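ingest -> validate -> predict -> emit
validate: passed (alphabet ok, no gaps, 75 aa)
predict: started
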Amino acid sequence: MISLDTSLRHLAWSNQKFFESFLGQPDEVFGLKAADGEWPIGEILTHLAGSGEWYRYCLNGTTWTDLKPIVNGAV
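emit:
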């Protein structure tokens, strides 16, 4: 089994690659939804970024930071 450190490093690496794919996208992209009633892309990205913040909070006891909603390509 891989270590917690390796898991978190991989999560950070994969998140970085994933978020980079949204850089420079038009603002409209962040409001798109897969279907009515589903979260828009920006809210999903905010949720994913928040998960990293949650891990920091739980594992390190660092102060919780409420993230601003992602609404454009300035991720």
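The chain has one domain: 4-60.
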